[in-house]
């Protein structure tokens, strides 16, 4: 990984296992969807505190964790997630690059061929992302049955990550509400890896495939990274916007009479401090 405090491979596996242990009937994100979700939080046009963005990690439907949840389990998840969040933020800001946690279908297929779980696990994660997309579609009044698992292997590999990103953008809709053609074009580049739910979305995907084809998974991952970094830059001025304070009265000069009525100059009275 790009910086020392990012998660190790073992810690990513640990995080995935911890999330899978979320009490039923809650449906948490897996590690790949979580990674996309964190990126989706980071590119929002406002700074979102962890108290807002952490709870949705544990359930697609926004249901809260039970009161009797294991505090050690929750603290460990929070610690790992905060480190990954900080690493992604640092990499985007300082390097203009980051390494997304996407499915490695080649490795999964090799494991499958050796008798392991392999691509079955990858297929399950992709299907989880489709189900999450179907829930989002239903909330937007779109037939969830129209959301199916894509056949394109590149899209299958990136689907969980991009699905997590979209989940963040739906949970915190300020990004989707931007009246900015550049932001909308960048979102379309990302969302080409989601199941197309409407004829208009299918047209956009077909246009991108014609004008900006992705030859292989490496090229697709690079395009994903650069798109997210461009989104982060496009919303940065809003995220760190500082309101100017307007004074109702002119600023008191050091040689003006002090406001307390002592008759002394401000610099020799309350301004002496």
Keywords for this structure?
273 residues, mainly alpha, 11 helices
Walkthrough of the structure:
The chain is an all-alpha fold. Helix content is 54%, strand content 0%. It has eleven helices and no strands. It has helices spanning 9-20, 31-42, 50-53, 71-95, 105-113, 119-139, 153-171, 181-191, 199-211, 217-234, 236-239. The longest helix has 25 residues, at 71-95. The radius of gyration is 24 Å and the shape is globular. The model is unreliable at 107-119 (pLDDT under 50).
Task: Write a concise synopsis of the structure shown.
By secondary structure, this protein is mainly alpha-helical. The chain has helices at 9-20, 31-42, 50-53, 71-95, 105-113, 119-139, 153-171, 181-191, 199-211, 217-234, 236-239.
Structural class designation? mainly alpha
Helix content: 40-55%
Spans of at least 5 consecutive residues with low confidence: 107-119
Distance linking N and C termini: 50 Å
State the order of secondary-structure elements, H for helix, E for strand. HHHHHHHHHHH
User: Which of globular, elongated, flat, extended, rod-shaped describes the shape?
Assistant: globular
The fraction of residues assigned to DSSP E strands is under 5%
């Amino acid at each position: 990984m790009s910086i020392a405090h990012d998660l190790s491979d073992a810690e990513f596996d640990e995080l995935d296992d911890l999330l899978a242990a979320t009490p039923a009937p809650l449906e948490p994100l897996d590690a790949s969807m979580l990674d996309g979700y964190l990126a989706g939080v980071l590119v929002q046009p406002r700074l979102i505190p962890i108290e807002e963005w952490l709870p949705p990690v544990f359930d697609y439907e926004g249901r809260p964790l039970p009161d009797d949840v294991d505090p050690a389990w929750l603290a460990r998840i929070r610690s790992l997630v905060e480190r990954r969040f900080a690493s992604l933020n640092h990499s985007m800001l300082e390097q203009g690059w980051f390494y997304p946690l996407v499915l490695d279908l080649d490795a999964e297929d090799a494991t499958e061929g050796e008798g392991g779980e392999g691509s079955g696990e990858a297929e399950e994660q992709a299907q989880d992302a489709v189900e999450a997309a179907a829930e989002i579609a239903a909330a937007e009044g779109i037939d969830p049955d129209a959301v199916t698992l894509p056949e394109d292997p590149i899209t299958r590999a990136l689907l969980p990550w991009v699905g997590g990103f979209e989940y963040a953008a739906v949970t915190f809709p300020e990004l989707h509400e931007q009246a900015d053609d550049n932001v909308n074009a960048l979102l379309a580049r990302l969302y080409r890896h989601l199941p197309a739910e409407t004829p208009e979305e299918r047209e956009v995907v077909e246009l991108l495939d014609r004008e900006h084809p992705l030859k292989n998974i490496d090229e697709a991952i690079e395009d994903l990274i650069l798109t997210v970094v461009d989104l982060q830059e496009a919303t940065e001025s809003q995220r760190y916007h500082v309101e100017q304070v307007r004074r109702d009265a002119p600023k008191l000069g050091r040689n003006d009479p002090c406001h307390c009525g002592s008759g002394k100059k401000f610099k020799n009275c309350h301004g002496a401090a």
